[in-house]
Amino acid sequence: MIIESQHIEFKSSFNDEVIITLVAFANATGGKVYVGLDDNGDVVSNFSVGKESIPQWLNEIKNKTIPSIIPDVIFEEEEGNEILVFAIQEFPVKPVSFKGRYYKRVKNANHQMNLQEISDLHLKTFNNSWDYYPSPHYGLEAIALEKVSQFILKSNQIRENQIEDDPLTVLRKFEMLKDNGQIANGCYLLFAKNDVFDATISIGRFATETSIKDSVVLRTDLFTEVDATLAFLRKHINKNYIITGDPQREERWEYPLEALREIVVNMIVHRDYQNAGDSIIKIFDHKIEFYNPGGLGNGLTISALQAGTYTSYARNRKIADLFREAGIIEKYGSGIKRITNAFIDYGLTVPVFEDFQNGFRVTVFDGSVLNKDNVTEDVTDKVTDKVTDKVTDKVTDNQMKILQLIQKNERITTNELAIRLNISQRKIKVNIAKLKEKELLLRVGSSKSGYWKINTNVE
Q1: Binning pLDDT at 50, 70 and 90, where does residue 331 land?
Q2: Are residues 382 and 357 part of one domain?
Q3: 166 with 176, same domain?
Q4: Which one of 25, 291, 303, 420 has the fewest beta carbons within 10 angstroms of its own beta carbon?
């Protein structure tokens, strides 16, 4: 039995929705539209195909799409009935439009693309990215050739075959300088002489959600931004010294520095530099939030990102190439796994990755989230002594952590809880059920729009 999916759609009759779905499939990885089936996949009794219907429908599809697409027409048998199927492959030149609007297939639905998605898909079709194209605003006079020389020195430290060319020749070889003398967008971001307002990173150390203790606004070239961002982070996170018995004490930062560096580098390399928004980093007492304008792109989902089941994709391929050449990144696609593993190895909860306000946000947490004593204190702040007794005596460590996270965010989802505690969503649901049985936890409202409430009236 067939069902609707990423590559399958049912339509009870032929109409514009059939063409929209074919366009969405053509802009993704192809698919089939079954005409004559209802939403449940059941045969529509009054659907019929006339003698001239198929040529007319194909002509309509051709005339309403740019570039014109012509699907294959197949007849398949379903429940003893012959069903009409339009099949389309991924189109080689994208995006395809329907009456001037662009769609792509996301899971089992058609998604109308915004201008940024249209631009990204077009660039991907020609195997290039925005940073490769000539800058319309800046010329060779806007970059510092001494910065190119510094890049060459960094690259030569890790290369077997040393770069011996002059800076201008190096820029040409890396396609940062065009034959007509124009510089690429990426060239300006990487080697700019002056402030780069298109690459602003705003960083703040917050005393509360609204009170800032210290801040900095970075508008440097991208290589410098990496070092300056990490310097500000080190300034505002704690460092402990562990006595090991050896002559020298062991230093341990509040967060794994290699993971913070990986997050910062990913922000800079994968940022949408056509978006007018700033990258923003907020440092709080027990967490750090990293926000980047521009979503994941390329149809990538949060779940695929966390599972590692995705194909590597760099929004800014040339910037990524030069960062890799300078030894700042190793390769595409492995950063999220290294970040996650670094936090697990450090004994901290897994970072939270999320789509947020037309961008992408990573939130990391310090050791207080996994400290049972702190959990008890946080929960105790707002519940009665009776609840505290039950929390202390009758719940497991995971249930204690769930209560703490709910205390901080009453609308937290079971998926977010699973990510934060690094256990399966099924185990989260089992623990929540037990907390409900003990009357420690209540659900107010529906599963989608409701919120959690810790019960303060437990007997």
Answers
A1: low
A2: no
A3: yes
A4: 303
Nearest to 398 by CA among 426, 370, 377, 378: 370
**Range of the structural domain that residue 415 is part of:** 371-454
Residue 3: inside a domain: no
Q: Which parts of 126-256 fold into alpha helices (H)?
A: 145-156, 167-173, 185-191, 222-236
- What per-residue confidence (pLDDT) applies to 379? 45
Neighbours of 4 (CB within 10 A): 16
Query: Among residues of the chain, what percentage have pLDDT more than 90?
Result: 45
The most confident of the ranges 17-21, 48-52, 433-437 is 17-21
β-partners of residue 8 are: 32
Q: State how far the Cα of 186 lies from the Cα of 316, in Å rounded to an integer.
A: 8
pLDDT of residue 117: 86
Q: What's the CA gap between 426 and 424, in Å, rounded?
A: 5
Helical ranges in 65-215 per DSSP H: 115-125, 145-156, 167-173, 185-191
Backbone angles phi, psi at 214, to 5 degrees: -155, 150
Sheet holding 279-283, edge to edge: 212-218, 201-206, 279-283, 287-293, 359-365, 352-356
Centre a 10 Å sphere on the Cβ of residue 12 and count the other Cβ atoms it contains: 17
